[in-house]
Amino acid sequence: MLKRLITVCLILSSGVTFGQSAATKYIEAYKAAAIQMMNDYDIPASIILGIAIHESGSGTSKIAKNLNNHFGMKGSSGPKTIKSSYKGYYSVTDSYLDFVNFLKKRSHLNILFEKYGSSNYKNWVKTIQKGGYAHSRTWGSQVLAIINKYHLYEYDSTENKQLAYESRPMILIEANQITEPVTYRVKSGDTLSSIAKEHKTTVEALKAKNMLKSSFLKLGQELII
């Protein structure tokens, strides 16, 4: 069964104000994706955000910037722009989905979904650490400190569960296969307006998905549709 990505939820928010901490900017950028994954997979949004912030240095670490790896997952798979023992991903979306896949495919961690669902983030942290995800004895307390400092548990609230998104894509994981997003390569004479019209979308949506600050396009540029 084909999987559609949650890339639209992983686009950086243009409303982030100057002076915010890296962690706050990260939360603003990825909270929608975390809530969507909570609704689809019953993993607390606070867990997704807390672990990602800790493992990626709020998206500023070397592996986050060069490998799109936001959860410290190790392995030889994926594209590698730098020599590293960590996995490389084509997109941040892939990293988020692989993290969920990691938890779901290990029986000693899969019990989390059955026992706690998207509640009780403290037991999620304790069980994930005991399950061998992290070897540092202070890992759990550090993740909990992040969750508490930024009140990430508020995203686990009933109000956020089953939250409806406009044009919200569905994400499913099967056999570790992830479908790449639909893309378009810019040709001579193309404009954002003509591309949007051809693919039945809007200029604003294209800008958001591709983090474009202007309508300027380069010949051969690849856009996510």
Description:
- The protein is mostly helical.
- The chain folds into 2 domains: 7-156, Lysozyme, CATH 1.10.530; 183-224, LysM domain (Membrane-bound Lytic Murein Transglycosylase D, Chain A, Roll), CATH 3.10.350.
- 43% of the residues lie in helices and 3% in strands.
- It has 9 helices and 2 strands; from the N terminus they run H-H-H-H-H-H-H-E-H-H-E.
- The protein has helices at 22-41, 45-56, 62-67, 92-104, 107-115, 121-130, 139-149, 192-198, 203-210; strands spanning 183-185, 222-224.
- A two-stranded antiparallel sheet has the order 1-2.
- Helix 1 (22-41) crosses helix 2.
- Mean pLDDT is 80; it is low at 1-5, 11-18 and 164-180.
What's the topology here?
Elements: H1 22-41, H2 45-56, H3 62-67, H4 92-104, H5 107-115, H6 121-130, H7 139-149, E1 183-185, H8 192-198, H9 203-210, E2 222-224
Antiparallel strand pairs: 1-2
Helix pairs in contact: 1-2, 2-7, 6-7, 8-9
Q: What's the short story on this structure?
A:
This protein has 225 residues and is mainly α.
Radius of gyration: 18 Å
Indicate how many domains the architecture comprises: 2
Q: SSE string, helix = H, strand = E?
A: HHHHHHHEHHE
- Structural class, please? mainly alpha
CATH architecture descriptor text of the largest domain: Orthogonal Bundle
Tell me the number of strands: 2
